[in-house]
Queue: 3 jobs
Job 1
Amino acid sequence: MKAEVTRIFGDQWSTRNGQVVPEPEDISLGNEAVEFERATVLYADLSGSTAMVDGKKWWFAAEVYKTFLSCAARLVRAEGGSITSYDGDRIMGIFVGEYQCTQAARCGLKINFAVQQIVNPALETRYSDAKYAVKQVVGIDVSNIRAARTGVRGGNDIVWVGRAANYAAKLTDLDLAQRTWITEAVYNRINDAAKFGGDQKENMWKKFKWSQHGDMTIYGSTWTWRV
């Protein structure tokens, strides 16, 4: 371990520009990184999962995990994103390309629809006495980002280094009525169809100050997007 740590800290980094989200085997285990000038990261996280596993049967929690993650994963892929990791009760997706922010924001609204209109009705039908409803939070940010391979031979994966990965994950900690959160950088890049909804073309996003991060501007939405 000492030798490996010394090597990592001592080796020079090599970088190359990325056009598509890489697989782990596309990057060496050395100090090599794939750089994206701009990539949009989406985290979709179950809310209250700790209380659920403490208070419900294991198989009930497993079914909630599986149904939520299955719907979220399908929607990430349907919107052109790549699934980069499953982490317990959350999923991470990366969007690249010209319309990445719009695709990711729309995906967040679609996940809200899936939870409210697909997962929870099915749960209520199957377990009418459970007194439980699935809730989720989606966080989305965009920034320059780099992908590096980490771990050991036979057990490794990609780590995403950049603001978007951290901020998207942190946004899922917010506990308000809004289910989908985007940074101002994302809001400024989404098209009008992903900003305004309903017959009156209302703004689907409400402006907030993120007190945990220097009162930076973020936007939250309670809206859904039909799938």
Job 2
Amino acid sequence: MPEIPLVPVHWHFPAHPASVRRARHAVAESLPHVLRPRLGDDLGLLTSELVTNAIRHGVCREDEDLIELVLWPADGHYWLAVSDPGTGKPVLAHPDADSESGRGLLLVDRLATAWTVRPRPTRGTSVIAGLSFRQGA
């Protein structure tokens, strides 16, 4: 019989800056206690960066739009998908030393074992990032 996977954890947050902290806390609390020392800080940072980007670049009106988060374990990774209703596709940039922003996806690229950007079937964009929790990875 195949192993039955865990049900993904799913949240919706308003597209408001206060949601960044709430999302980070929700993700941290959902991580199994045994994995928190190993993944907690990096997963929290990924959550902060991706939710911040979704709020800044993926919504039209913060009073109407929601940011969606999904967290699930699969194939030795914890996967985080952050989705927004925007149509733009996030792009990895290389800002110069004087730039005050534009480094969020660079951070995601350095932290995540793998990450990608996918259009949503109905409306919007999802950024999906994974962190390995296998021994030795």
Job 3
Amino acid sequence: MAQVLPADCRVEEEWSTALLDCFEDSATCCYGFWCGPCLSCTVSGRMKECYCLPLCDYCNPAILASCCVGVPICIPPAAFGLRVALRNRYKIKGSLLNDICVSWCCAPCSWCQMHRELKLRNMKPNVINIQNVVNMQPAPVMHQAVPMGMGPMGPMPMGPI
């Protein structure tokens, strides 16, 4: 007897890399460290959202104040929202509480993890189709040189007739 699963039943996967796996992709880590806003805008664009969406996190006065204090005052909305969206799109295990904690405590690490996830998920194998192409040119046509005064029917008269 076949078992029928409900339509909303889904197989959940783990994140491809852990939150602090910076050395899995050092290029992403450097990108996030030296230009965090650029990395977050790249993640937003790859998720087909507005590229400028993460700038709300960097321009929020409460978040800017938390940088001075050292303790986050509020949850960065773009980091949290895009993390939840990415987790739902790829059916990654987790919870909203976990997303809140990660976005609140370590938003830069969250952006790096999301960037690594998108890079790994969007890698498509390169299919190379090699065909043997033979460029055939027609054989050169050899024309017989016709001596002067010779026509196709024999010798041609040379003077007035």
